């Protein structure tokens, strides 16, 4: 089953999860021995995150935040640690990620990398301005790949 792993550094890796045992494989990829939280930010996708990522001090995942926020159409809470993105069936079960949503993930990841690089020479006026800028770019990327 096709899925994508997004690291806190913004690297996106293709995954081939087993049909049976997908939950265990997802847990391994997000680094959680315990709970993996599952978020619904797009009707055709599930975002799987470490259940205690922020509490145990995992690095922030700006790419996953920008993607989920763009899908939802508003700024969300931060994501921490590696994140796995899968498809979603109408029943709410995990399924293979489609090409259109995979394109969203790759486009947003590229934009986040480019924006962070640009901020080295042109820092944003504030953290809030940076998040607004990044969310606008991510929303543009998602709209362009529909």
Report on the architecture of this protein.
There is one protein chain. The radius of gyration is 15 Å and the shape is globular. Strands 1, 2, 3, 4, 5 and 6 form a 6-stranded antiparallel sheet that branches. Helix 2 (62-72) crosses helix 3 (99-119) and helix 3 (99-119) packs antiparallel against helix 4. The mean pLDDT is 93. The protein is 40% helix and 21% strand. Strand 5 (83-88) and strand 6 (94-95) form a beta hairpin. The chain has one domain (2-144). With 146 residues, it is an alpha+beta fold.
Distance between the termini: 22 Å
The ordered string of helix (H) and strand (E) elements is EEHEEHEEHH
* Approximate shape: globular
**Integer count of domains:** 1
Gyration radius (Cα, Å) is 15 Å
Beta-strand level of the residues, as a percent range?
A: 15-25%
Helix percentage: 40-55%
Main pleated sheet: 6 strands, antiparallel
Mean of pLDDT: 93
| Low-confidence runs | none
Structural class: alpha+beta
Helix segment tally: 4
Number of strands: 6
Short overview:
Helix content is 40%, strand content 21%.
Outline the fold blueprint.
Elements: E1 2-6, E2 12-16, H1 22-30, E3 36-42, E4 45-50, H2 62-72, E5 83-88, E6 94-95, H3 99-119, H4 127-144
Antiparallel strand pairs: 1-2, 1-5, 3-4, 4-5, 5-6
Helix pairs in contact: 2-3, 2-4, 3-4
